[in-house]
Amino acid sequence: MSQSLSPAVDPTPFESSVGSRSHESVVAHHFVDAEQQHATAELGMWMFLVTEIMFFGAFFLAYLIYREWYPAAFAQGSHHMDVMLGTLNTAVLLTSSFTMALAVHAAEHSQRRQLVGLLSATFVLGAVFLGIKGLEYYHKYAEQLIPFAGWTFGPTGNERVGMMAFFNLYFLMTGMHAFHMVLGLAMLAILIVLANSDRIPSSRSILVHNVGLYWHFVDLVWVYLFPFFYLVAIRPAGHL
Amino acid sequence: MSSTVISPPNRNYLNVSYTVRSWLLTHDHKRIALLYLVGVTFFFVIGGLAAAVVRLELMTPRGDLTESETYNKLFTMHGITMTFFFLIPAIPAVLGNFLVPLMVGARDLAFPKLNLLSWYLYMLGGLLTMWSILAGGVDTGWTFYTPYSSTYSNTYVMATALGVFTAGFSSILTGLNIIVTTHKMRCPGLTWFRLPLFIWSMYAASLIMVLATPVLAAAIVLVGLERVLGIGIFDPAMGGDPLLFQHLFWFYAHPAVYIMVLPAFGVISELVACFSQRRPFGYSFIGFSSFAIAILGFLVWGHHMFVSGQSVYAGLIFSLLSFLVAIPSGIKVFNWTATLYKASISWETPMLYALGFVGLFTIGGLTGLFLACLAIDVHVHDTYFVVAHFHYIMVGGTVMAFLGGIHFWWPKITGRMYPESWARLSAILIFIGFNLTFFPQFILGYLGMPRRYHIYPEEFQVLNVMSSAGASILGVGYFFPMTYLIWSIFYGPVAPDNPFGHTGLEWQTPSPPPTENFAEIPIVTEEAYNFLPDDTRQKIAEEVPLVPVA
Amino acid sequence: MDAKIKHSEPSLGLTSAVFAALLVLLVVTVLVAQVELGSWNFVVAAGVATLKAVLILLVFMRVYYGTPLIWLVSGAGFVWLAILFNFVFCDYMTRGDAHSPTRDLGVSYEVRSRSTSD
Question: C113 vs A225, B313, B316, B375, C110, CA distance in Å?
Fold first, then answer.
């Protein structure tokens, strides 16, 4: 980076700003000031989230079409979902979003210890979510409800094909969501290390804010996935 | 108009460092643009070679040069390389990368590291695709239609799909960078209505890259998961619908046509304005029509599916909306023509390409109206009529504009002038070769010759031979610029800062520009097209005898 | 330095209130799913989910406090999704029964074309 700068411009690269936190070192060479850099980073993150919305949107489209086609199969399929675990997981994820929102607040107000604590809490909650998700996947495997990869698919009868579509979509969409969670956990881990060594001054709180935006977005996807797979139709009595 | 004094050897982005490392790890948008130029040229040659073999095979009605399977792989390779690795990145990632920061008066794009990452993703995707071709090829056509691609094809679909998927990320990052730069990095005084039209059209194209590419990514992920894991979202045996793939694919791939052609519109607007020394007629109409095309482009994808089993009602709606795209496209053509009207036009090479573009794009656009019409489309669907139509848009439009733009900004990029007479010769060769190649294909298609077959009835041979002959002229026309442009880097005359007398910001810096683009961030007080009024220039012309600028 | 970047942010009280509301909505959506409402079950579930999403967007993701540009960008994704959904359903909802593998594809199409030619 520095070799491409003329002597007239401050040659300190963005990354090497540890230690000296003067105004110049935090602002990259092509920005006028920190304000512009902050707004640019936020807009960039939002543009990225737009692409994520479109990406998940394609899967939601497939979901809506096949639900339209196979209403009975989708109702039956959702009866195989564990509503207790699903509700618990939703609560866990919503709580992690809450701690993330608080973490952004802490970062902006230079509360380093709260920041590390809240980021760690978010990380742990995210990991708990994935753990519960894994448990549910295992249950589906045990109940022979995985229609792909050569496993035996249990359900028979008229609704078998529709239920295959249901479980294909279930694993596809929750799997894609879980993959995004893993990426989010990796970002959180980096933030925790940075915050712990005091390398996120409030002037760089945009880092936390942007990871927060991503985390909330992943939460937002789950907010739809939960009713779409767990609460499709009313259950037979005592089945909750 | 600034001075045309030849600048002394200065410290610029090219000579600031010569190491390989300084190129491969650069964050400078101008160097990344050149990296992209090398990339797109490489893939253009690969795609061109595939097309050459296709045209050779079609010289005779019998399939005597290649096997059917090989022929399928050849047109697939041509299509995939040309669309995903040449046409889509060509203007945005090369000219856009180089010019957007210069035109908005910024030191770099908003996210220089993402910009470099974008090039690496592009090359990685491209090389993956090349590997799959060397390993045995793909035969699905560039459209990857299911269920053939997901269930039946035994070729290297996964590797190719992964390559296209990776290149999609590169496209998203380029688009994101351009949008954020346009919003946040404009220099003081540069309001939206003072921006060059190139920026307007790049912005509109970037919107499509950001909004549409993720849907292609989703469709490719689904095809991949179906091949690898058997998650059959498109598999009827598992309750899926193969046609859904076409919806997702064309939701991307139709707007992708406008990713290719909108930046071309931007280039042409600059060229037409500069070589007629006029503010583009109806500046705001050209600007807003770019947005209209970008948005309308999202509402018409179903016209690729008229005969696929889509409902007739949906076909009707898509047909109606497809006709509407003609309005903003027409606005552009009329405005360029009105800009030229009674202007004192100079006939440098970029202008030849621009004029060629206007004519060819008009033919391509008007034949598109035939295809938007439900009944006619049933007749000519999947024939050479369609092939000719989109080549008039892609090659007659995008490639002409790309070459015009490369010639126009070559002095700025390299600091050297290209050889004018050679350049004019090849521009004319390309125009002739192009029309000879593709006009017969309109007739072939209308007579009923289907695309993607290498064996055809005897009576189509004359037109096919004409087309192949045209292709060889076209090939020579493309070969010349590659040669003389490289020659000009070493031996071409040193270029002045503003050889063509354009008033845009990018011409106010030295040629080639310094790494930081501007010694001081400029403050803009007028719009990009601040040419002298016609009558003033006439007066000057009467008093001072005309001297050729370059 | 801090003074240079102005954060417009929700208060901690509001953030907590939104969190509480999200949990309440979660309970509501689970409970409503136990009541037979026919096809309205889906509408209610999707509506509650959207309400939750809007709360997350406006407060947790701070769109409410954002510039007009952030409003525009955050809305653009959803508008474009609406375009995709709208036109694809334009096709699927008017395809007759052609999708059902158990029915004869020709019959329903015949009936339709005859009735339009009358």
Answer: 40, 12, 15, 16, 5
